[in-house]
Amino acid sequence: MQLQEAQLTSEPSLPALSDKLKNVVRLATQVIATRLDTQTRVTEYKSLLSAAQQWLESASAEHEAVEKGSSLDSRQRIEAGRCLMDKLERVGHPKVEAVKAAGMVVMNSISNVDSDIVEEQVKGVERRLGDLRRRVERKQQLLEATQTALQEFMRDLDACRKSVEREGRSEEHTSELQSHHD
């Protein structure tokens, strides 16, 4: 029996078969590692996408509060709008850029159909940020124009009040002068 085993191991095809088996194991390990890496990237992308979408929802709710006023006077609404614009640039833009970068990495690793889905998701997040930015800018312009008009009205009203007071004093003075001449 040992003689037969010795003959099997000494055959020239057994080392070649062993090498091929090692090669198959190495290739399988590489495929598994690549798939795990791709799955990790997809998970990271999904996490970034979800965080960006939640943040945009929160920023939209904040904009709605500025939009409706919610017991804020015009100066407070203007300041809240400025803060939101700053937050969109400081926080929102980097979040969207992170989603975009992760999406590009993922798209290189997945099928064309899945790449199209990722591309649409990235465009959707970019579009939401742009839309929100435009809405906040329009509201800011409107609030600032309203504030400017109100200030001009108050100046005109004050000027009218002073003019009426001067005319009243002038008439009193004229009446006093006439009564002294009579």
Strand element count: 0
Q: Strand-residue fraction?
A: under 5%
Q: In angstroms, what is the radius of gyration?
A: 38 Å
Straight-line distance between termini: 154 Å
Low-confidence stretches: none
Q: What is the chains' assembly state?
A: single chain
The helix/strand class is mainly alpha
Number of helices, counting only DSSP H or I runs of 4 residues or more: 4
| Biggest beta sheet attributes | none
* H/E series: HHHH
Question: Could you estimate the helical fraction of the residues in percent?
Answer: over 70%
Mean pLDDT: 87
What gross morphology would you assign? rod-shaped
Give descriptors for this structure.
182 residues, mainly alpha, 4 helices, rod-shaped
Describe this structure in words.
With 182 residues, this protein is mostly helical. The chain is 93% helix and 0% strand. The protein is built from four helices and no strands. Helix 2 runs antiparallel to helix 3, helix 2 packs parallel to helix 4 and helix 3 runs antiparallel to helix 4. The longest helix is centred in the last third of the chain and has 70 residues. The chain is rod-shaped and about 140 Å long.
Question: What's a quick, concise take on this entry?
Answer:
The chain has 182 residues and is mainly alpha-helical. The protein is 93% helix and 0% strand.
